[in-house]
Write a structure and sequence with these properties.
- The protein is of the alpha+beta class.
- It is 19% helix and 26% strand.
- The protein contains two helices and seven strands; from the N terminus they run H-H-E-E-E-E-E-E-E.
- Strands 6-5-4-1-7 form a five-stranded antiparallel beta sheet, with no helix packed on it. A two-stranded antiparallel ribbon has the order 2-3.
- The longest helix is centred in the N-terminal third of the chain and has 18 residues.
- The chain is elongated and about 105 Å long.
- The termini are far apart.
Length: 135
């Protein structure tokens, strides 16, 4: 079966290779395709090519600039960082004098919610223990 298939493929290849060769348009009286088209219709001047238009991209609104970070410095020797805005809340850490923290907001009762720089702790301290300038 395999020999029969291989033989058939070989014969088909030879037939197409020999008889299937394209010799082009060699018969008398035939014109090339372009000549036939131009002879069939009158010459019409071509319009000038259109200018390339610039690529227009959709406008993307930029994100508003971030508000500047409000930094504060610890003025007391040691400050307790608490879970909430009162001494009734648990202490989550301590900050030493001169430690820098980002002021997130200030509560109405005099406590500031801060994010300590460096260690990433957040919590509340008494706002009166913070200052805008380093000690």
């Amino acid at each position: 079966m395999l020999r029969l298939c291989a033989g058939l493929c070989a014969v088909l290849f030879l037939v197409l290779r020999i008889a299937g060769e394209d010799t082009g348009q060699t018969r008398a009286g035939l014109r090339p395709a372009e000549a036939a088209i131009t002879a069939a219709r009158p010459m019409v001047p071509r319009a000038p090519p259109l200018p390339e238009l610039p690529l227009v991209l959709p406008l993307v609104k930029a994100a508003p600039p971030e508000a500047p970070q409000t930094m504060r410095y610890v003025q007391a020797d040691t400050v307790n960082l608490r879970e909430g805005p009162s001494t009734e809340f648990a202490v989550v850490g301590q900050l030493l004098k001169g430690a820098m923290a980002q002021l997130l907001w200030t509560e109405g009762n005099g406590w500031a919610h801060i994010a300590a720089a460096g260690n990433g702790l957040t919590g509340y301290v008494a706002a009166e223990l913070l200052s805008e300038s380093a000690p």
